[in-house]
Design goal:
405 residues; alpha/beta; Aspartate Aminotransferase, domain 1; Aspartate Aminotransferase, domain 2; 2 domains; seven-stranded mixed beta sheet; four-stranded antiparallel beta sheet; 14 helices; 17% strand
């Protein structure tokens, strides 16, 4: 097990005081804080190595290019892709999903074809498929939720058919914490020759990811969810898919030759990376993945599950508090409602106590509709959180109840 005090010392912002109280940051599902190692990697680039990448023959360009392409190797190893060519850098999970929707799926669709997603998806894994369906005449089909926050996978055989051209599901729900049995989903879909996209925005920071073992066709995640910068993420796609997909955007660096008559596109993955990329973000994300790897993702998972068990026990003892999402296989997210108190009031008062939580629908309005609520308060934990902080959160909830009656 890693040293929690050492880990916390790696994150400068955790020493911050909020309204005179020590910061308790539990909004990690929205975005994680950054270790000094990530901050230093970006500072080092700007201070010592920065230049635009690819094609430059001078030393700084060569150095920046090496760091950038080294980051691609880091991502490949972190998720166990078979080739670096299968890693496309994108702005984040959202752009990765949109890229697959536009470049892979849309050209294949005909009216009456189907796209299968689930009722627990983040809006980023709903809206791109809706737009694609509207443009092509395809239909959106939904894997239903169960009361405890699991997907009703017994419905899957009836939902899968030759009409389904893609399945897109979250690995771990950002609003419920549910970890889905994506291996079962992939196996059943592949049995009918249907490709599968996994939204790994939440799972990437909390559990080992092996895309070859999963055998998913696409896997997307964001750097800022795993202690890296915003504005950067990665799309993994099997090589055969990328070779057959058309470019998502046009511009510099995604070409080999250009004339007014014809453009010859670059090799994969570069034909999907138009324009000057987020060089510093890419290098920072690689530093974050190295940091997590050094701690050990299995050790992180074990510790976070201990935090989740303790927090779930403490919260369940609070009168009037209802946890939304009680699936037996959960990541370290607890969403709840307090009887008679709006979540925005809960979040505001907890903030005054130094506790940073997220309130709202968490970009999962269909989930809120299923439970007939407008919003929840979400506590999302990380390996830099502590048992003592969970006690502070519990005290902050008690303060909410005291002030709001």
């Amino acid at each position: 097990m890693f040293d929690i005090n050492k880990v916390r010392s790696d994150f400068p912002i955790l020493g911050t005081a909020v309204y005179g109280k020590p910061l308790v940051y539990v909004d990690n599902a929205a975005s994680t804080q950054k270790p000094q190692q990530v901050i230093d990697s970006i500072t080092d680039l700007y201070s010592n190595h920065y230049a635009n990448i690819h094609r430059g023959v001078h030393h700084l360009s060569q150095k920046s290019t090496a760091l950038y392409e080294g980051a691609r190797e880091t991502v490949k190893n972190f998720i166990n892709a078979s080739k670096v060519e299968e890693i496309v850098f994108v702005r984040g999970t959202t752009e990765g999903v949109n890229l697959v929707a536009s470049s892979y799926l849309e050209p294949l669709l005909e009216p009456g074809d189907e796209i299968l997603i689930s009722e627990m998806e983040h809006h980023s894994n709903i809206i791109p498929w809706q737009l694609t369906a509207e443009r092509t005449g395809a239909l959106l089909k939904i894997i239903p939720l169960l009361e405890n926050g699991e997907l009703d996978l017994s419905a899957l055989p009836d939902l899968l058919s030759p009409k389904v051209k893609l399945v897109a599901v979250t690995h771990m729900s950002n609003s419920l914490g549910t970890i889905n049995d994506v291996s079962l989903i992939i196996g059943q879909a592949h049995g009918l020759g249907i490709p599968v996209l996994i939204d790994g925005a939440q799972s990437i920071a909390h559990m080992p990811i092996d895309v070859q073992k999963l055998d998913c066709d696409f896997f997307v995640f964001s750097g800022h969810k795993i202690y890296g910068p915003t504005g950067i993420g990665a799309l993994y796609a099997k090589e055969n898919h990328l070779l057959n997909m058309k470019p998502y955007q046009g511009g510099g660096d995604m070409i080999l030759n250009v004339s007014f008559e014809k453009t010859e596109f670059n090799d994969i993955p570069y034909k999907f990376e138009a324009g000057t990329p987020n060089i510093e973000g890419t290098i920072g994300m690689a530093a974050a993945l190295d940091y997590v790897s050094e701690l050990g993702i299995e050790a992180i998972d074990k510790y976070e599950q201990e935090l989740l068990a303790y927090a779930s026990k403490r919260f369940s003892e609070i009168e009037g508090l209802q946890i939304i999402g009680t699936a037996p296989n959960k990541g370290c997210i607890i969403s709840f409602v307090l009887e008679g108190i709006h979540p925005h009031d809960v979040g505001t008062i907890m903030d005054m106590e130094g506790v940073a939580v997220r309130t709202g629908h968490h970009c999962t309005q269909p989930v809120m509709d299923y439970y007939n609520i407008s919003a929840t308060t979400r506590v999302s934990l990380s390996f830099y959180n502590t048992i003592n902080e969970i006690d502070e959160i519990t005290r902050a909830i008690a303060k909410v109840k005291e002030l709001m009656g």
